[in-house]
Automatic annotation (TrEMBL):
Domain TauD/TfdA-like: 165-404
Gene: Tmlhe
Domain of life: Eukaryota
Protein name: Trimethyllysine dioxygenase, mitochondrial
GO biological process, one term: carnitine biosynthetic process
Length: 421
């Protein structure tokens, strides 16, 4: 695992902010026309960017770099970066927010160069750099994507010719690891090749990018069609596209597959970008997209086979989106493991089935299906919050090993390498 290198992260954030100033300075020409005439505005030139602000009764309004931003006074007090309110070494808040009057108002506000000074009733002074305020404002944040992605169907993915990363490159170089993670973040799938076909080597790969998430299936799993567990994965049957562990309150973030052996026919792996399909639903039937993002459902796993006794339940909508920018972050789709729907009134149920059908139609379009035959030596990583997998039925002896990984920790690794995650 990686240790924290926050200074590195900070300096890349600073570079990002500098680049932004230059871009936004170019868009300043008509910002004056936005001002209401009836209230008193303060105009100041800071560096090259003009800034105008107004102290309203219940909030602070700032126009800077062509952006109109509003800040609640409690927010401005809460985010104070002074040494007594914030520990800049640990990046943690010292201030006890509950001790601040919810209706707090600054006694005075003044701007000096590019720094705003708020003096609070008890005399405490909070200072904010204009660029910091802008970067951290809601207005800025809602324009941004949390996770840049390339949504794909089979043709888009194949044309992109995303290369697999070599085993040694992945394990021994930061470039190899970074390339791999960049592919994974953009497409939701990525391959490592030339891996010795053993469970130990597969485990080593997994540990390079994240933490293994131990589950009811074990830490590293290793399975054949031996009916050893109460799930169709342990048969030779075809499996339609799905995401795994929908019956966990937090479905596993990443699935790793390594086919160690197959002597027989069939058994190809199916991959479908769930976010591409959801995007199609959003375009064709936005109210159905919304319904799929609002109606919570249960998924369930009940197992009573030999020594294995499990009963897992996970609740959540099929599509999970960030409310401020509507960006998708998780699809929970498994028709096998979907539990009884009894938390939704009948008229909504009907609309939900219609919406689910629309999504299923998109997910099942042949042009959205990427089929790959997993071979010993080639390890597949799947973003289980985004990309659905399935398999063709097969004959003969087939051995698959792999594991689940935690999502937070793969993103941690990616961020520390300077990637946007
Ligand atoms: C991958 N491994 C064989 C360990 C488990 C398979 C679990 C399959 C289950 N129906 C699900 O979708 O979650
Ligand atoms: O056998 C396979 O290729 C995959 C089965 C499956 O869906 C799983 O193990 O999660
Ligand atoms: Fe699965």
């Amino acid at each position: 695992m990686w240790c924290h290198k926050l200074s590195h992260l900070q300096s890349s954030l600073q570079n990002l902010a500098k680049g932004r100033d230059i871009c936004q300075a170019l868009h300043l020409s008509n910002f004056k026309s936005l001002f209401p005439l009836s209230i008193h505005w303060y105009h100041t030139a800071s560096k090259s960017l003009k800034c105008t602000w107004h102290q309203h009764e219940d909030h602070f309004e700032l126009q800077y770099a062509n952006t109109v931003m509003r800040f609640d006074y409690i927010w401005l007090r809460d985010h104070c970066r002074s040494a007594s309110c914030y520990n800049s070494k640990t990046h943690q808040r010292n201030l006890d927010t509950a001790s601040v009057d919810l209706c707090i108002k600054p006694k005075t506000i003044r701007l000096d160069e590019s720094t705003l000074f708020f003096t609070w009733p008890d005399g405490h002074v909070t200072r904010y750099d204009l660029d910091w305020l802008m970067k951290n404002s809601y207005e800025e944040q809602k324009q941004k994507v949390i996770q840049p992605r390339i949504l794909w169907n089979a043709e888009i993915y194949q044309q992109a010719q995303v290369p697999a990363v070599d085993f040694h490159c992945f394990l021994e170089t930061n470039e190899g690891l970074k390339k791999f993670l960049q592919n994974f973040l953009l497409y939701g799938i990525a391959f490592v090749e030339n891996v010795p076909p053993t469970q130990e080597h597969t485990e080593k790969l997994a540990e390079r990018i994240s933490l293994i998430r131990e589950t009811i299936y074990g830490r590293m799993w290793y399975f054949t069609s031996d009916f050893s567990r109460g799930d169709t994965a342990y048969t030779k049957l075809a499996l339609d596209r799905h995401t795994d562990t929908t019956y966990f309150q937090e479905p596993c973030g990443i699935q790793v597959f390594h086919c160690l052996k197959h002597e027989g026919t069939g058994g190809k792996t199916l991959l479908v970008d769930g976010f591409y399909a959801a995007q199609q639903v959003l375009q064709k039937a936005p109210e159905e997209f919304e319904l799929l993002s609002k109606v919570p459902l249960k998924h369930e796993y009940i197992e009573n086979i030999g020594e294995c006794h499990n009963h897992m339940i996970g609740v959540g909508p099929v599509l999970n989106i960030y409310p401020w920018n509507k960006e998708l972050y998780l699809i929970r789709y498994n028709n096998y493991d979907r539990a009884i729907i009894n938390t939704v009134p009948y008229d909504v149920v009907h609309r939900w089935y219609t919406a689910h059908r629309t999504l299923t139609t998109e997910l099942r379009r042949p042009e959205n299906e990427l089929w790959v035959k997993l071979k010993p030596g080639k390890v597949l990583f799947i973003d289980n919050w985004r990309v659905l997998h399935g398999r063709e039925s097969f004959t003969g002896y087939r051995q698959l090993c792999g594991c689940y990984l935690t999502r937070d920790d793969i993103l941690n690794t990616a961020r520390l390498l300077g990637l946007h995650a």
